[in-house]
Design a protein that fits this description.
Order of helices and strands: HHHHHHHHHHHHHHH
Shape: globular
Number of domains: 1
CATH topology: Na+/H+ antiporter like fold
CATH architecture: Up-down Bundle
Helix content: over 70%
């Protein structure tokens, strides 16, 4: 059933978008549980910032700024949307899919925390330069974004570490049922898709051409980011982690930041990006189930020692 869960979640989001919008408050709780259940299977001592993380961060930063100046001569809304499509924060649920596909969990978690903390400080500065800020000071803007990111990233990590340290038996049971996090993620996906579709349908018909262009931009960005991530990840023996780290976005948080600090219509790019990334994830999961894995990751030395022991 697993390869068909994500397409079914997307279909539900399309069909019941109006109802799902009213239930969108459940999404942060689902994300918290997803990351907590996943992190319980990880040793915090494995977290290390590597060259792969630096390359991924630089790629998102440079391409995000580059996309803004590339589209600015044509339309400022397109420029803002394209920028957020590249700068959008890493989805905390990216670890779930990446680990299923064979990625190194420590690589995923390290980059998720690293980039989201970086974006919390960089985004207010970037928004203030564009000139669409709401009049808040730099630190006030930073604090607002941090309040959105920290509870979803840091608290599950701290909770998982404490659980591993003081409740080993409960942790063992959680690890034995860690696939529950995948289905919770599918439920969160349904809410995100519903919110995206409902937002697009509420727009005036005169905005249809620019919405179509922004949806196309999000498709191109999805292809480019997954492709670059897999390419650079392959050089560091973790193709899947590289692709998922910069390819799978937190569309909800990115759309919220866009609506608050930039032109609200520009949020169509990060919102529609969610559709493309999850179609790709669905295909990856289907292919992973079929004969011939998506990625054969070279085991790290510490993993070989673990297996030999």
């Amino acid at each position: 059933m697993r390869p068909f869960v994500l397409p079914f979640a997307i279909l539900l989001g399309f069909l019941f978008h109006r109802t799902l919008v009213s239930l969108n408050y459940l999404t942060p709780y689902l994300i918290f549980l997803i990351l907590f259940l996943t992190l319980c299977d990880m040793d915090i001592r494995q977290i290390r910032i590597s060259r792969l993380h630096i390359w991924l961060l630089l790629f998102q930063l440079i391409t995000g700024i580059g996309c803004y100046f590339l589209f600015l001569p044509f339309n400022d809304i397109l420029a803002q949307g394209a920028m957020m499509g590249m700068l959008a924060p890493v989805a905390v649920s990216a670890t779930v899919v990446a680990v299923i596909l064979g990625a190194d969990m420590a690589t995923m978690v390290t980059y998720t925390i690293l980039y989201n903390v970086f974006l919390a400080f960089f985004a207010p500065f970037c928004f203030s330069l564009i000139g669409y800020h709401t009049g808040l000071s730099f630190w006030a803007s930073c604090w607002i974004i941090i309040r959105k990111v920290v509870p979803l990233i840091i608290l599950p990590l701290v909770s998982a570490v404490l659980c591993r340290r003081f409740l080993p038996r409960i942790t063992a049971k959680i690890v034995n049922h860690k696939m529950i996090s995948f289905y919770l993620w599918a439920a969160a996906l349904t809410f995100v898709i519903g919110q995206t579709i409902d937002f697009i349908m509420m727009q005036d018909r005169s905005k249809t051409p620019i919405i179509i262009v922004m949806v196309a931009i999000s498709l191109v960005q999805c292809i480019v980011q997954f492709a670059f991530g897999r390419w650079i990840g392959k050089k560091y023996d973790d193709t899947i982690a590289g692709g998922q780290a910069i390819g799978q976005k937190n569309g909800v948080l990115a759309a919220w930041m866009t609506q608050m600090y930039l032109n609200p219509l520009a949020s169509v790019v990060p919102a529609s990006y969610v559709l493309w990334q999850n179609l790709w994830n669905s295909w990856q999961l289907w292919r992973f189930k079929s004969p011939g894995p998506v990625n054969k990751r070279v085991p790290m030395p510490n993993e070989e020692e673990k297996h030999s022991n």
